[in-house]
Amino acid sequence: NEYKSYLRMDVSGESKLERGLDLMRRLPPQDVGNNLCKLIDLCPSLMEELLSAVDQPLRIMNDDMKQKKFLISDYNRDGDSFRSPWSNIYYPYISDGYLPPIQLRTIEEELNKAMRIQLDSNRYYSLSPPSLYFRGGTHHR
User: Fold this and answer.
1) Residue 15: its pLDDT value, please?
2) Which of 86, 12, 16 has its CA nearest to residue 47?
3) Quick check: bond before 44 cis, omega within 30?
4) Is-contact 68 62, C-beta < 8 A?
């Protein structure tokens, strides 16, 4: 596999992460998602660092409970799951994901409602799902 040989190359002082990021810069940007998955499969220990360092196109998920769409990103990710700002549930479901404290959750809900109104008032942005997230402390279920 060409990725493995590239990551194994002995380049003075460069870490596997630096080699992986260099590889991502050289690969076609339209394949960033697939290439990132392949790189993580090769070096699972670098998953968190790679996901934080490599920009990916925005993706959308559907909140099945509230029937609303939301953006997925590092800001609402816990492992391989993503928290919906609408229902506060992770998709795919996990039972021990981070949940914001009730005060932040209340603000998060209100701001998402306000952002939805703002987006709906502009025809260009009306199809965009608002996805505002707050993090604070280490509150888990």
Assistant:
1) 83
2) 16
3) no
4) yes
